[in-house]
């Protein structure tokens, strides 16, 4: 799957990234979200209007509650998040 996502990213389509360094600020037009296993992902803001993200945020609210500060935690693991982002990258 990683090879496919790199191939899609290099073909000029939108890309996503799993961030492993400690950069504090997301690129313009992006937001950081975290999976339950602690992986950080920088995703385009345009993805937030997709139904899958609305559902993930709803489940996050039910599971973790509403937080006014701190990271945005989504209720899925890193491989699931990578797969979701890969599919969205193909569709957009």
Automatic annotation (TrEMBL):
This is Indole-3-acetic acid-induced protein ARG7. Belongs to the ARG7 family. PANTHER family: AUXIN-RESPONSIVE FAMILY PROTEIN, AUXIN-RESPONSIVE PROTEIN SAUR65. One of its GO terms (biological process) is response to auxin.
């Amino acid at each position: 799957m990683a090879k496919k996502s790199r191939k899609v990213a290099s073909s000029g389509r939108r890309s996503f990234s799993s961030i492993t360094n400690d950069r504090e600020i997301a690129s313009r037009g992006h937001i950081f979200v975290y999976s339950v296993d602690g992986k950080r992902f920088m995703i385009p803001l345009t993805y937030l209007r997709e139904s899958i993200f609305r559902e993930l945020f709803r489940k996050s609210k039910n599971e973790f509650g509403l937080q006014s500060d701190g990271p945005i935690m989504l209720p899925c693991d890193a491989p699931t998040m990578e797969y979701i982002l890969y599919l969205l990258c193909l569709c957009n």
